[in-house]
Design goal:
The complex is a heterodimer. Chain A is built from four helices and seven strands. By secondary structure, chain A is an alpha+beta fold. In chain A, strand 3 and strand 4 form a beta hairpin. The relative contact order of chain A is 0.14. Chain B is built from eight helices and three strands, in the order H-E-H-H-E-E-H-H-H-H-H. The C terminus of chain B is likely disordered. Chains A and B meet through helix 2 and helix 4 of A and helix 1, helix 4, helix 5 and helix 7 of B.
């Protein structure tokens, strides 16, 4: 019974990632939504994004990769929502890094610099965390061409 | 926690939000905590949580925070095994087992350990930097996950095999009735 003593986290994780995949499949501009490393053993969900379709306006960088990782834990879950295009990689990370910036930090990386900021995001449920990030994302992405 | 830091997909109603919060917890949480996360009233959360507990989806435990709920491990596991057995071919299940084995072998080589236990013990080593330690802890979690999925895959293959035999040769049932006690 070692499996049950270890808890149902593995299958809890599949439940959360299944809902994340379903959510991303409904997002405008998102396509080719897949589990990684595999459908039977998912650790994250990745998608291709048509940037202009997602933003609803013209944008200099057309293609983006989007990845959501989620790992349930006793206490605070690990969750990462990451946008990566040709010029910038940005996202919200809830993990053990940069605890001084709060439960979640926002990270933005270009060829020139890597910046970490407080994330101001406390949601524990994977879909709620993702939804909050999706709502904030357009402003953050558009901000990368005016900065 | 600040309510301003949470949002939910528009199409999710109260029941769906409560269900999602409750089924993605690892540690037991009380109705008040789940209600806040799901953005519903405590009474609404309690109503849906009790219903899920009655259906066997949630386990109810008494903690210092009162009556708490968490996903029922056995229900979750058996449902997973059944889904795998019904939806995947034996080749797909076998290929995934091979991929898990390959990955565990790669971790053994990368960290120069023979087992998950040995990797766990290595966390206490003084020569590890904090980032090395963090990377190893992450690998330990993924290793545990692989083991859990492997158990489900192995049982799903057995279940498929049993179901195929029962379906292909109904005499198995008849043979059984001659040797096993009758149970109605």
């Amino acid at each position: 019974m070692v499996l049950f003593l270890a808890g149902g986290r593995g299958f809890t994780r599949r439940e959360g990632l299944r809902r994340i995949k379903e959510r991303l499949e409904k997002e405008p501009g998102f396509s080719n939504v897949q589990y990684r490393p595999s459908r039977l053993r998912p650790r994250s969900v990745v998608a291709d994004v048509d940037t202009e379709m997602f933003l609803g306006k013209e944008f200099p960088r057309k293609q983006t990769t989007f990845e959501v990782a989620w790992r349930p834990r006793a206490g605070t879950d690990v969750q990462r929502v990451q946008w990566a295009d040709d010029a910038v990689s940005l996202g919200w990370h809830k993990d053990d890094d940069h605890e001084d910036l709060g439960t979640t930090h926002f990270q933005i990386e270009t060829d020139e610099e890597l910046i970490h900021e407080p994330g101001h995001l406390e949601a524990e449920a994977p879909l709620s965390f993702l939804e909050t990030c999706l709502q904030r994302l357009p402003a953050r992405v558009e901000g990368t061409i005016t900065d | 926690m600040s309510d301003q830091s949470r949002a939910w997909p528009a199409e999710m109603d109260a029941a769906d939000r409560v269900r999602h919060v409750a089924l993605t917890r690892t540690t037991p949480q009380n109705a008040g905590w789940i209600a806040e996360e799901a953005d519903v009233s405590r009474d609404t959360a309690a109503k849906y949580l009790d219903r899920m507990a009655d259906q066997g989806d949630l386990e109810v435990v008494e903690t210092a925070d009162g009556m708490c709920y968490k996903p029922d491990d056995i229900t979750q596991f058996l449902r997973e095994v059944r889904t795998l057995a019904e939806e995947q071919s034996v080749d797909e299940l076998t290929n995934e087992l091979r991929a898990i084995g390959d990955e565990i072998d790669s971790w053994k080589a990368a960290y120069d350990v023979e087992s998950l236990e040995e990797l766990r013990r290595s966390i206490g080593r003084e020569d590890l930097s904090s980032s090395d330690r963090r990377e190893r802890l992450e690998t330990i979690e993924e290793w545990e996950y692989n083991i859990q999925v492997r158990e489900a895959l192995q049982l799903a293959i057995s279940l498929q095999s049993s179901l195929t035999k029962l379906d292909a040769d109904p005499r198995i049932g008849e043979i059984g009735t001659g040797t096993l006690p009758q149970e109605g």
